[in-house]
Amino acid sequence: MRSAVVSLKQKERVCLSICETYAFEEVRAALRAQLDALHVEELLFPGCRVVIKPNLVIRSKPEEGAITHPAVVAAVAVELLERGAGHVTVAESPGGPYTPPLLRAIYEAGGYTELAQTYGFSLNFDCSYGSLEAPQGQRCKRFDVIQPVLEADLLVDIAKLKTHGMMGLSAAVKNLFGCVPGLMKPELHCRFPEREAFGEMVADLCCALKPALCVVDGIVGMEGNGPTGGKPRLVGALASSRDPFALDMVCASLIHQNPVHVPYLRAGMKRGVCPESLDGLSLWGVPVQSLAVSDFIQPESCSVNFLDWLPKFLRPLAEKVATPVPRIQTNHCVGCGKCAESCPQHTIRIAGGHAVIDYRKCIRCYCCHEMCPKHVIDIKRFRLFRF
Question: Do the beta carbons of residue 126 and residue 93 sit within 8 Å?
């Protein structure tokens, strides 16, 4: 995989535009101006192979707010092709088994199949994978990564602006976790069950993959219990950068989150790859505060604030009690088993026609909530800790 070398000032530029519709020409116009501002032509060379990594975590329709809208992906693809890219392929490894039939179903449901034919980009069905070294990794020194990403000359990360049950925020950096093939994702959840450790691992992966260009679809985001069980919310924002950490600093601010409270951004700050505040960015376009949504609903799994007030010896017990747990709506569960399939700790079984969780082994990763196709797994605190 070829990585571009850019100056620090260019790399920390973040572009933000108002865009309140998915009409293709309007999306393209906004992105064209941003790509000009980011000097994207410096990244391209004749015949270069571009792989676009969208967020297609589950089989979902664009209007549900869980996936990157295909109009954004198509607009970026067309712009890159017109600027000299040799070939553009969309590649993703969603949650669940990494198989061609699942990919086909996800592309079709998300509206990608039709737009790929219309605008001349390809959809990946190669389900092989290989090894990516992460020599600077602090938690992981090697990752299994889908083959198209390994073979790309240019990796373009096109994320969806969403809340996330475990990380708080899902945007450019977190989206790259989808480069890990299929059911190998639960293995990493199992290895790194705590939020801090998992965030550090995600930061390791992002630094190893080195995406050359990142775009976040924040036209319609997802609030509440994201990344799949929340509600669509109009934000009206398109954002881009050549630096995923800088971009996610802006994304966190757009949905009224403190970037310091996002584990993977905090990990990036500690290792010097993430600015510590918006003051460290070169901002282009509209001011962040002009699009920030102050009442954006946060995931119920967000950490409680009072733990710092407790004596240190009480914090582990209090955190265990206060951390929300997944709850099955047993009267609506159809017993499909997707939650059990995705659970890294194998704590879920199907009994009596619905899912049952063994909370003694649950690590609160919320993979079951994320992968439930019927959205009948809630994230709930004990009543004492609900605010």
Answer: no
The answer to whether residues 334 and 359 touch, using CB atoms and an 8 Å cutoff, is no
Instruction: Please answer whether residues 239 and 281 qualify as being in contact, where contact means their C-beta atoms are separated by less than 8 angstroms.
Output: no
Q: Which of 251, 129, 274, 146 is nearest to 199 (CA)?
A: 274
Cβ pair 204, 140 in contact under 8 A: yes
Q: What is the pLDDT along the chain (387 residues), one digit of tens a residue?
A: 554 434 344 458 999 999 999 999 999 999 999 999 999 999 999 999 999 999 999 999 999 999 999 999 999 999 999 999 999 999 999 988 999 999 999 999 999 999 999 999 999 999 999 999 999 999 999 999 999 999 999 999 999 999 999 999 999 999 999 999 998 999 999 999 999 999 999 999 999 999 999 999 999 999 999 999 999 999 999 999 999 999 999 999 999 999 999 999 999 999 999 999 999 999 999 999 999 999 999 998 775 444 555 566 655 655 566 678 899 999 999 999 999 999 999 999 999 999 999 999 999 899 999 999 999 999 886 554 444
Map residue 194 onto helix, strand or coil. Answer: coil
DSSP letter for each residue of 343-385 = -TT--EEEETTEEEE-TTT-----HHHHH-TT--EEEE--GGG
| Structural domains of the chain ordered from first start | 8-290 (3.40.50.11440), 319-385 (3.30.70.3270)
Q: Quote the CA–CA distance of 93 and 382 in Å, as a whole number.
A: 34
Residue type at 322 in one-letter notation: A
d(CA 172, CA 159): 5
CA distance 121 to 128: 20
- Residue of 222, 163, 228, 232 whose CA lies nearest to 374: 228
Distance CA 157, CA 126 (A): 19
> How far is the CA of 153 from the CAs of 18, 149, 209, in angstroms?
30, 9, 12
User: How far is Cα 266 from Cα 168, in angstroms, rounded to an integer?
Assistant: 12
- Cβ neighbours of residue 34 closer than 8 Å, sequence gap 6 or more: 15, 17, 215, 238, 240, 284, 285
User: What distances in angstroms separate CA 142 from CA 135, 137, 167, 297, 344, one per listed residue?
Assistant: 8, 8, 21, 36, 19
